[in-house]
Amino acid sequence: MADGSPFSAPFPSPANRRGAVRHDWTRDDVQDLLDLPFPELLYRAQTLHRAYFDPTEVQISTLLSIKTGGCPEDCAYCPQSSRHEESVKAERLMAVDRVITEAKRAKDAGAARFCMGAAWRSPKDHDLETVCEMIEGVKGLGLETCVTLGMLDTKQAHRLRDAGLDYYNHNIDTSPEYYGEIISTRTWQDRLDTLENVRDAGINVCCGGIVGMGEGEGDRASMIATLASMPKHPESVPINLLVRVAGTPLGEADEVDPIDFVRVIATARITMPESHVRLAAGRENMNDETQTLCFLAGANSIFYGERLLTTPNPAATRDRKLLDRLGMRTTMVES
Ligand code: SAM
Ligand code: DTB
Ligand code: SF4
């Protein structure tokens, strides 16, 4: 909890937190939470949120696509896969100085973390060296660093750790049961292996999933149970609402009931109370009231800035206005 918050006093001190954090969540346990009456679910989520965080504070991360398009993988949701009809145009890996310029801009706009994404199955060794230069440069600005580069082996994870990387993003995306409907070019076990390599290298883990890919409610429970039963919970848990991009197999997926989406956020908050739960992709198509419910359900991180990787995100001015209306503030960066 940040020092100096006018709200510090009423929150329970760490000594007063109720119970140990659980790592044995089953799909049924999570389903029971998802099925709670909405007021009860939100009450539980808010109670835990307050025990661990200042509920008026939101962490902000800015994304940059450092290598766009031309990806050989077949993730059904992703506009960067070269296997889909209208995938985005493939570009080369960005130059280091351009990345640093973008990171400075993000810092000036108030971001605490700079996340760099590459449309790779896994990084090639010479590209990884360039990414390490980017990490060193971005860290030099006083920003936290995060990258998402696809699958990593142990050696690559250690190389990133040595470059000073703070977070690695690698999502499980959905439940183990539904996974095969979404991706065929890498296995569920491949995902878990990368996550383990990142964890073992001592890098913080950013791992979440996507809601709205045609999954059943049971899949949502199973996805959250998978995350919440990890021996150490991911430090950041991005919950993405599918951005439906025309030309991808999920371009015409059914809309998600906003209340159901808020339920997923609340369930992530309850099961992983120490983690930052990010209201990630999908805010561009969400009204202020739904986003507000997400914050009330325990979301305490957002992607900030006009673009995600290839798709639009709300303008920073709209986000500032909403946070001001709510009397909320962003986590400040030490510099
Ligand atoms: N290529 C790397 C990989 O897949 O691991 C890194 C980049 S990839 C774009 C990172 C994550 O973005 C995906 O795992 C997925 O969860 C999320 N994502 C991609 N397209 C999305 C979409 N249309 N809507 C919501 N989330 C999306
Ligand atoms: C995450 O969970 N969501 C971000 C980030 N991690 C890399 C990506 C969202 C991508 C949305 C589609 C796009 O802009 O291409
Ligand atoms: Fe490639 Fe990542 Fe998109 Fe999958 S999600 S197609 S691996 S960029």
TrEMBL record:
Keywords: 2Fe-2S, 4Fe-4S, Biotin biosynthesis, Iron, Iron-sulfur, Metal-binding, S-adenosyl-L-methionine, Transferase
EC number(s) recorded for this UniProt protein: 2.8.1.6
Any single Pfam family the record assigns to this protein: Radical_SAM
UniProt keyword annotation of Magnesium present: no
Binding annotation for [4Fe-4S] cluster: C71, C75, C78
CDD domains: Radical_SAM
Pathway membership, UniProt: Cofactor biosynthesis; biotin biosynthesis; biotin from 7,8-diaminononanoate: step 2/2
GO molecular function, one term: biotin synthase activity
Gene3D superfamilies per the UniProt record, alphabetical: Aldolase class I (3.20.20.70)
Biased composition, class Low complexity, residue ranges: 1-10
Binding residue positions for [2Fe-2S] cluster: C115, C146, C206, R278
Entry cofactors: [2Fe-2S] cluster; [4Fe-4S] cluster
Catalytic activity reported: (4R,5S)-dethiobiotin + (sulfur carrier)-SH + 2 reduced [2Fe-2S]-[ferredoxin] + 2 S-adenosyl-L-methionine = (sulfur carrier)-H + biotin + 2 5'-deoxyadenosine + 2 L-methionine + 2 oxidized [2Fe-2S]-[ferredoxin]
Family in the record: Belongs to the radical SAM superfamily. Biotin synthase family.
Purpose of the protein: Catalyzes the conversion of dethiobiotin (DTB) to biotin by the insertion of a sulfur atom into dethiobiotin via a radical-based mechanism.
NCBIfam families registered for this protein in UniProt: bioB
Assembly and interaction partners: Homodimer.
Name of this chain's protein: Biotin synthase
Protein source organism: Acetobacter fallax
